[in-house]
Amino acid sequence: MEFQDYQRAFTGHIRDPKGAPRPKGVPARRMRVYNELLFNNIEGFLLACFPVCRAILGQRKWTRLVRAFFREHRCHTPYFRQIPDEFLKYLQDGWRRPDDVPEFLPELAHYEWVELELSTSARDERLPAHAPDGDLLAGRPVLNPVLRVLAYRYPVHKIGPRHKPKAAPELPTFLLAYRSAEFEVRFVQIDALAALLLQTLEENPALTGRAAIESLASERQGGDAWLVAGAALLGNLRAAGAILGCRA
After folding, report:
1. Are both 1-101 and 125-248 of the same fold?
2. Would you state the torsion angle of the CA atoms of residues 177, 178, 184, 189, taken in this order, to the nearest 10 degrees?
3. Class assignment of domain 125-248?
């Protein structure tokens, strides 16, 4: 057997011990050590990021899912930190959900992954010049760069072993996730107006706070009430640390 063929056979058996034969000449006991070591390492990285998913599924279903990921997915990064990223890609793109696994699992996994993504982000290394106490209506609000506006079909922030919804509610769930000045990742449930306003500011950083609110009001036939509500919302977001101030 050529060396590369041997490597493929070796790694193929590690990925799928039951489906791929053990390479000739490798003792079963030694092969078992490799199998367990690599699988346990992968599972350990995933368990650290997705503890609620693991609690929802239970040991048997969780192990089956991790084994399927290990067997079927081809990672495109060598970094251990990005294994959860690859697992999320697998759930969203290549996974065929068994009937005994809840439909909300990919959304729940994304919700759990966001905490890791924000906690390790370096997007705040270079902040634009800004005035923390600036006028958020007249000025151009500066969003916390380590921030995500999230929309889910399921109320993922409430899901746990004792609360496993069988169907998605009629209205979506909007969440704001951001990293505070104390380096803590925080999740806050928000309404549709807050989600739209944050999205508008994120996509159009040249807009003043007033212009962003007025654009939403005109699109949805809102009036002065939108401006009042939007101004209060901007102030609350700044107090929470999701808005840093106004561009200088």
Report:
1. no
2. -30
3. alpha beta
| Axis-axis angle for helices 224-240, 209-219 (nearest 10) | 130
How far is the C-alpha of 140 from the C-alpha of 50, rounded, in Å? 37
Residues 115 and 52: beta-carbon distance below 8 Å? no
Domain 1-101: state its class: mainly alpha
List pLDDT tens digits, range 10-37.
Answer: 777 678 778 777 778 777 787 788 788 8
CA–CA gap between residue 81 and residue 44 (Å, rounded): 11
pTM equals 0.90
Cα angle value 116/118/122 (rounded, 5°): 120
Domain locations in the chain? 1-101, 125-248
Q: In what order do the strands lie in the sheet with 173-179?
A: 147-152, 173-179, 185-190
Which tens digit of pLDDT belongs to each residue from 73-102? 988 877 888 999 999 999 999 899 999 999
Contacts of 148 (CB under 8 A, 6+ apart): 114, 117, 118, 176, 177, 178
Please answer whether residues 53 and 106 qualify as being in contact, where contact means their C-beta atoms are separated by less than 8 angstroms: no
